[in-house]
Fold these 2 entries.
Entry 1:
Amino acid sequence: MKHIAESTVRRLSDYLRFLEELEQQGTRTVSSGELAALGGTTSAQVRKDLSFFGSFGKRGLGYSVAALSKSLREILGLERQWRVAIVGAGKIGGALARYSGFHQRGFHVVHLFDAAGALVGTVIDGVTVKDERTLEATLAAEPVDIVLIAVPSDAAQAVVDRVVKTGVRAILNFAPVPVHVPSTVSLRSVNMALELEFLAYALVNHTR
Amino acid sequence: MKHIAESTVRRLSDYLRFLEELEQQGTRTVSSGELAALGGTTSAQVRKDLSFFGSFGKRGLGYSVAALSKSLREILGLERQWRVAIVGAGKIGGALARYSGFHQRGFHVVHLFDAAGALVGTVIDGVTVKDERTLEATLAAEPVDIVLIAVPSDAAQAVVDRVVKTGVRAILNFAPVPVHVPSTVSLRSVNMALELEFLAYALVNHTR
DNA sequence: CTCTGTGAACATCTTCACAGCT
DNA sequence: AGCTGTGAAGATGTTCACAGAG
C-alpha cells in the first residue's frame, strides 16, 4: 500500500470517535460535510482521507455510520487487543496506568516497571510494579506490542535502547526529550512542555 | 512577521533543550550539523528554521551556544513567567499539577478547578482545588495566561467555551476529543489515545 | 438534485546546492 | 577550508472543482 500521511491517520481516529458517538445516538448515515464539521476540517479532506483506503460512501447519500466505523476500526487496527507495558511508574507513568481511556480502546497495560525500589511491589490499577532490571526477562516471557516510556529525560534513550533490543516495534515516548530508534520501530512522542512552549510562542507573537 | 510553521517552532524548542545541555557541559559553539544530529533532523533544516528569525551564526564557525539559546528563549517567549490554570483535578489534571517539568520552564500552576465536591478543598502540590463553578470569578480576580483542560470528553467543549469567554487566549486540551475555539485563541491538543491508535495503525500496516 | 470520489491546481514544508563570510 | 544563510527545486499535504453514481 502507498504511504499514508500521518495527518490522515490521525484524522481517521477523530472520524471514528464521532462515528461511535453517532452510532450510539442511532444515526444511520452521515455525509462528509457533517464529519468535517465535527472534526474541524473540510468535506473534501474527509473524502480524500477515506479515498486512500477505498470507497465507503454512496453518492447522493453519504456514509453508513455502522459500515464506516467498522472499516475505520479495521484500518486503524482496533479490532484486536493490544498489550502495553509502561516503563516508569512515577507521576506520569502512574497517571497513564490509571487512565481508563486506553483500556476502552483495547489497549491493556500488562506490565509496569520502575527503577525506584520504593515503588516496586506496589499495585497500581491492578498491576504490580516490577523492578526495571527485570524488563528484558519479563518482556521475553510475556511480550507486549507497545511500550510507553515515562522515565526521566536522562534515562529515556537508554531505556528505549533496551526496549528496542527486546524486539518491541512500537514506542510512545513521554520523556520531554527526543529519542532515537531504528527505522524498523514506530515511535511517537508526547511532550507536554513542548506544547506549552508552543502556546507561549503563540501568545508572544500574537498572530492568528 | 511572516507566518512561521508550527513544525519550525516545535523544532526550536528541541534545539533550545540541547543548547541548554551543551551550556551545562561548557560547550561554547555548535554547528547546525551537530544540532541536527541531536534533534534528528538535517543541518539544512536547522539553518532554515533559524533563518526565519535572523542570522545567529558565524560562517565557518557555527553558533555561540550561549547567544543562540538566549535568542531562542526570547523567540519562544520563555524569558517571562507564565501563569497557568488547570481545569479538572482527576487523574490527568492531578498528574499535570504535580509534573515538575512545567515549573522548570517558567509555567506556574496558580489555579486548579474541579467539579467533584470531594476534591474541592484538597491541596495538590501546594495549590488548593477550587470549585469549578468559581472559574469565571477566580480568573477575573487572578487571571492566567494559559488554561489546561483535563475534564472528561463530554464536558470539554463547555469548559472551553467558558474559559474562552473569560478572555483567556491560549488553551491546551487533554480531553480526547477535538474542541473548537475562536481564531483569536491558540489551541493545542494532547491526545494520548490517539497516539496509541497511530502506533496500532503502524503495527498493522507494518511499513517503515 | 445530492453528495461521493478524484485528478489537477495550489499551498506548504523540506531538501538541495552554492554563493559568500570568517 | 569550514560552515552559514538562502533562493530554487523537489516533495508532501490540502483545496478546488467537477464528473458521475444514486
Note: The domain at 82-194 of chain A is CATH 3.40.50.720 (Rossmann fold).
Entry 2:
Amino acid sequence: MSAEETKKRILDAAERLFASQGFHNTSLRDITREARVNIASVNYHFGTREALVREVVLRRLVPVNRDRLRLLESLRHAASRGPDDISSRPTVREILVAFLEPSIKFISTEPAANDFVRIMGQGMADPDENIRKLFMEQVRPVFNTMAELLSMALPSIPRPVIHMRLHCFIGAFAHWMRLMGSDSLLSGTNMFPNSPEEVMKELLNFCEAGMEAPL
Amino acid sequence: MSAEETKKRILDAAERLFASQGFHNTSLRDITREARVNIASVNYHFGTREALVREVVLRRLVPVNRDRLRLLESLRHAASRGPDDISSRPTVREILVAFLEPSIKFISTEPAANDFVRIMGQGMADPDENIRKLFMEQVRPVFNTMAELLSMALPSIPRPVIHMRLHCFIGAFAHWMRLMGSDSLLSGTNMFPNSPEEVMKELLNFCEAGMEAPL
DNA sequence: GTCTATAGATTGATAGAC
DNA sequence: GTCTATCAATCTATAGAC
C-alpha cells in the first residue's frame, strides 16, 4: 500500500474514534484495528501518538480558520476605508457570519465533518493542556480579529464586555458542535434532523441579539 | 483516622485533580498520593474508581440542582394562579436567574467551588458516555422545567426554537464554568479577576437578549 | 481500617526479520 | 513499508498480614 494511502486511513480512523470516544480513551491499537493497518505503522508514519493527534486536528482546522480569517480581513479592509463612515462599519451579523460560514461550508462539503465537528467541540473543553493549546493556537487569531471588529461595530460597548460576550458566543458554538450527531439533552427527544444551516441560523439570531444587548 | 475523614480527603483530592487534569488523566494513585491515604483505601471506601467519580460529582451537583428546581417550581406555581394574566407570567430573566443564582451561592460559599465548577464544565462535554450521563441525569429535569417556563414567557416563539436557544444558554454557561480560574482565550490577557457575580451578570444580559430575539 | 505486595490487563514505543 | 514479538511502564483491583 502507498504511504499516503496508509496515512490517510490512519487519520480517518483516528478522527472517527476520537469523535466517538474522545482523545484519551482511544488507544493506538483501537486506531490501527479500525484502520486495518499494522500497529507499528503509526510510529513509522507519525512518530508518536501526540504527533498523530496533532495531524488529525490540523488537517481540518487549518483550512477552515484560513477561510474565516480571509472573510474577517475583508470586513476589516472595507471598514478601514472610512473609519468615521457609519455605513462602512461591519455589522455584528456580518462578523458572526464570517466565523460561521466556513463551518457550514465544511460541514456540507466534507462527509466526515460530523466527526470533526465533535472533536472540535470537545477539544476546546479538554482538560489536557496540550490538547487545548493545539486548538487555541489555531483559533486565537480568529477570535482576536473578531473582538477588534466587534468593537468597531459596537462602539458604545466597552472592550472587556465585548470579550465576555464573545466568550458567550464561543461557548454556544462549541456546545452546538458537540451536540451535532448526538442526542439532545432535553426531554430525550433528538432535536435533529435540523439541518446545520437551521442550527446556525438560530445560533446567529441568538448571538446577534446577545452581542447587541443593552448594558 | 476516622472513616469519614478518609472519605472526605479522598473526595477533596479527587475533586482538585479532576479539575486540573480531567477525569481520564487522573489515576487512583494520583488521588491517594494527593490525599495522603493508602492506595487500597479507595477500594475499601468506594468500591471502584467509577463509584468514586460518581460521588465526587453528586456531592456538589445534587444540592445545587435541588435549589434550582425549587426556585423554578416557585415561578411555575406563581404563574399557574392566572395563566391568562400576563402579569403573573415568569419573565425570561427570572427563569435564567433561577438557574444561575444557586451557582452563584455555591461559588461564593464553598472554597472548593472553583474546582467543581471546572469539573462541571468539562463533564458536560466529556466524550465518555458514562460521564456525560452522570451529569445529564441530574440536569435534565432542570432543563425541562426551564423549557416549559420559557414557553410561557415567550408564547410567540415555537417550542423547538425555545429548545435551541436554551442550548445556546447551556453552552455559554458551560463555557464560562470551564473558563473560571483558567486563562482567557483572547489575546493572552487573563480576563479575571472579574467576580463570579460580574460574569453572571454579563451572561445574563447576553442570554436574556438572545432568548427574546426576534424570529 | 490501613497497609504491602502483587495479579492481570493494557498502554506507547521499538527492534529486527522480511 | 509492513509485520511479529516484546519491552518497560502504567493502570485498577484485590488478597492477606497487621
Note: Chain B touches chain A through 59 residues (CB under 8 Å).
